[in-house]
Amino acid sequence: MNTMKKHLRTGTRSALAAGRRAHRARRLVLAASFADADRANAAHARQEALLDEALAETFPASDPISPSYIG
Q1: HEC states along 21-61?
Q2: 24: helix, coil or strand?
Q3: How many angstroms separate the CA atoms of 65 and 57, rounded?
Q4: Percentage of the chain surpassing pLDDT 70?
Q5: How far lies 52's CA from each of 19, 41, 45, 47, 66, in Å?
Q6: How confident is residue 65, by pLDDT bands cut at 50, 70 and 90?
Q7: Torsion sign over Cα 60, 66, 69, 71
Q8: 19-48: pLDDT as tens digits
Q9: Can you give the pLDDT at residue 47?
Q10: Number of Cβ atoms within 10 Å of the Cβ of 14
Q11: ∠ CA(31), CA(34), CA(40), 5° rounding?
C-alpha cells in the first residue's frame, strides 16, 4: 500500500511539473510574439519618420517624393 501512495504522489508531481513546463512554454511563445509585434511597430514608425523627413526636406519643390520602402 505504501508503494501505491508513493506512485500516486510521484504521478501528481509529474503532472504538476508538466503543467509548469507547458505554462512556461506558452509564456515564451507570447513573449516572442510581443517582441515581433514591437519590432514591426518600430520598423513602421521608422519608415514613417523617414518619409516625413523626406517630405519636409523637399517641400515646396515641384517634384514630390517617391515613396518607397527604405530598409
Answers
A1: HHHHHHHHHHHHHHHHHHHHHHHHHHHHHHHHHHHHHHCCC
A2: helix
A3: 10
A4: 66
A5: 49, 16, 10, 9, 12
A6: low
A7: negative
A8: 888 888 888 888 888 888 899 999 999 999
A9: 92
A10: 10
A11: 145
Regarding predicted confidence, which is higher, 10 or 48?
48
Cα separation, 51 vs 66, whole angstroms: 9
Number of H helices, E strands in the chain: 1, 0
C-alpha dihedral sign at 6, 10, 15, 17: positive
d(CA 52, CA 63): 15
Distance CA(23)–CA(40), nearest Å, equals 26
CA angle 66, 40, 42 (to 5 degrees): 75
